[in-house]
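Many introductory courses stop at the sequence. We go one step further.
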Amino acid sequence: MASGGSAIRGSRVGSGPMGEQDRGFHAERIAVSYWDASGNETVRYFAANLPDEEIPDVIDSPTTGLPAGRDKANPPQSQKSEPYKTHLAYVKERRSEEEAAQLLEEALVQLRARRSGETAKA
C-alpha cells in the first residue's frame, strides 16, 4: 500500500479546525421576504442597521424573472414589455412620409450621378 498522501483525505496541510471563530465577525442581519405574482417567495438578507428606505421595495424574482414586492397580498404586476423595434420602425417614428420621399429622391439622384460617372469612365 502506497503512503504519501494526507492522513485525512480532503484536508490541506496547515488547515485548522473549521468553526465560527475562524470565519470572522458576522454582522446582524434581517430577513426581508418578497413575493411575485406567481406566489413564489424570495428572501433577501440586509444589514440590521440599514435604514428602511434603503431596502428595495421591488426586486426581480430569481425563479420567475417577475417583479417581486414586499406585500404578499398585492405583489407587483409585470410591466408590459415593448416588442423589439427594428431600425426602420425607429426611422418611421422620426420621419414623415413626405420627408422619407424627399430623402429617398435625394439618395437616388446621388446614386444615379455616381453610376453615370462610373460608366463614363469605363
